[in-house]
Design a protein that fits this description.
Number of strands: 13
CATH class of the largest domain: Alpha Beta
CATH superfamily of the largest domain: NAD(P)-binding Rossmann-like Domain
Structural class: alpha/beta
CATH architecture of the largest domain: 3-Layer(aba) Sandwich
Mean pLDDT: 92
Oligomer: single chain
Strand content: 15-25%
Order of helices and strands: EHEHEHEHEHHEHEHEHEHEHEHEHE
């Protein structure tokens, strides 16, 4: 769908673009509207981002930068929209500061749901079958029957969060593998329970009932460290923890104790804690063989990236022309925690 005509006050304005894997041809509609697209190597520090945002009318945020209040204030005279690629903007954009500065923040709901769900199920399979530990082995090397992995259909999976991603993961597990699936969400979803044949459990009961516990909620003040020592302490011995949301939803100290005591046999992360943190270093040092870590790549398929970029480009055009967009977040939208 073509962009609406850019407002006259945006003619010749700059759109800052960060991130990798972006097909620049998808940004041509911005060029045609008289906007200057300026891609930058990513990630940028807070100081670098603050400098680069000065004079920009829009920021397509596809990298790992933190658009802090200070960075946004540096561009308050011109910046009108931050278009975030993905849904988990909370840890990357200070939306409260953007609201105060009258800067719209948009995201791309639904564009990467299949990519994230497929990746998460793939990591569930990897961890459940112990594939990472067996790579390169010329023979199985089992020491006893107790080391044999279980089929997914014999496992119980619990999902924390039943938004679009959680629902799609449940659909794949139920329809593709016949897995027993339960979930916890702040808002119960009886229609999904009936449709998919899944059950609702309170969080601690879900942890106790799950051979594999999947974290699929955004990071907010409410969800940060929600998987704490109490939750991990209720997990069955040898359970698998899969977190393809944000790392800080799982308390690192609680995870360390869970791995140390054998409560958690393997932990899967897409994106990990701050590499400068002492707790992250201790986890990597002491449990390297039981951590399956990737670098925030779940949503990065060619198809998902195209959908996200197209949606972000449309949102930029809408905000610059009409002053609003259907995918805005912040004070005018409901909480993203589901």
């Amino acid at each position: 769908m073509p962009l609406p005509p850019a407002g006259a006050d945006c003619e010749g304005g700059t759109v800052l673009v960060t991130g990798t894997g972006i097909d620049m041809a998808l940004l041509e509609p911005l060029d045609r509207q008289g906007l200057k697209v300026r891609p930058l190597a990513s990630p940028l520090t807070e100081d670098q981002l603050a400098r680069e945002l000065v004079g920009a009318v829009a920021y397509l945020h596809g990298g790992e930068e933190r658009a802090t209040a200070r960075a946004l204030r540096a561009a308050r005279e011109t910046l009108r929209v931050v278009a975030f690629l993905g849904v988990g903007y909370e840890n990357f954009v200070d939306v409260a500061a953007a609201d105060r500065l009258d800067i719209a923040v948009t995201n791309t709901p639904g564009a990467a749901t299949d990519a994230v769900a497929t990746f998460t199920v793939a990591q569930i399979i990897n961890a459940n079958l112990g594939i990472p530990r067996r790579l390169g082995d010329p023979v199985p090397g089992w020491h006893g029957a107790e080391e044999l992995p279980h089929e997914l259909a014999a496992r119980s999976v619990g999902i924390i969060g039943m938004g679009a991603n959680g629902r799609r993961i449940a659909e794949i597990l139920r329809g593709g593998f016949g897995v027993r699936v339960s979930y916890f969400s702040r808002t119960r979803r009886p229609e999904i329970e009936r449709e998919l044949g899944i059950s609702y459990l309170p969080l601690l009961d879900l942890a106790a009932a799950s051979d594999i516990l999947v974290v699929m909620v955004p990071e907010t003040g409410e969800t940060r460290s929600m998987v704490d020592s109490t939750v991990i302490g209720r997990m069955p011995e040898g359970a698998i923890l899969v977190n393809t949301a944000r790392p800080n939803i799982v308390c690192p100290g609680a995870l360390y104790a869970g791995l140390e005591k054998g409560r958690v046999s393997m932990a899967v992360f897409d994106g990990f804690y701050d590499p400068e943190s002492e707790e992250a270093g201790e986890l990597r040092r002491d449990f390297a063989g039981r951590l399956l870590i990737t670098g925030h790549i779940a949503s990065h398929t060619a198809e998902a990236m195209r959908r996200m970029v197209r949606q972000a480009v449309k949102s930029i055009g809408n905000v610059l022309t009409y002053g609003s967009d259907e995918h805005e977040v912040g004070s005018r939208s409901a909480s993203p925690f589901r």
